[in-house]
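User: Show me a protein chain along with its predicted structure.
Assistant: Here is one chain, sequence first, then structure tokens.
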Amino acid sequence: MDMKILCQSYLEYLQYLQIEKNYSKYTIESYIATVQEFFHFMESEGISSVSDVTYSDIRIYLTTLHDRKLSRRTVAQRLSSLRTFFRFLMREDYVKANPFAVASSPKKELSIPKFFYAEELAKLFEVSDISTTLGQRNQALLELLYATGIRVSECCNIRVSDIDFFIGTVLVQGKGNKQRYVPFGSFAQDALTMYLEDGRGKLLEKGKNNTDVVFLNNKGTPLTPRGVRYVLSEMMKNTSLLLHINPHKLRHTFATHMLNEGADIRVIQELLGHENLSATQIYTHVSKEQLKTVYMMNHPRAKNKGEG
């Protein structure tokens, strides 16, 4: 292969993702890993230049992914990454056409998001001892995640100055540094107020450096996404529930409960920070299942007479 051209295009693409697209570290790592994998495929097939890649080569590439028994979702992500890469190569005149433009992604499996029912959440909200420093933090963390549906990375980046208690909103730094205001209710407000006025100050005293970040660990430094997952898992262990919990499940719960209570899906899209409505529409499937369950339980002629 013409390694000089490949290396040059690779480095320019990396800068494009970092500077122009402003993607997160993890998204960039995923995109780059896919490109590197495709370079290895090109080498194994004897393709010397990106300009020589054809649709037939892509069919072979897809076959190799199929042989590895990758999920349709993973294959679709690979195709999307490479489609973006070749679109960039076209812009920079490395190639004349984008062979991935005509490669259709496999139909994704319908994956219904898992969420908590209201009675399950109620038990979670009862486990924290709010007379303690960490109990106040944990309660504020849980209340805010459920009240807003924000991502765990967004939650960890919230600063005290981002919270407006007067109108009940928090300023969130979303993907691509896009900002949005997300409202929260009285339960989250009460929990946050208690934590900020008491527990957070005590945690802050343990840290060597002052910080404006809201959620701190027991050493007084900013809580990480991994730390949030650990906190939530420990809270779940203190309930009678045999359920798995993670921050994204709370995000799913927020969206599902909002939709089931009649919220407009475009409002939910805005609150979640989804760029495309299609990402939000998956929650309509959960709502349909909920509607069907309620119907079967309550409609007089939904069941046969012989059923209880």
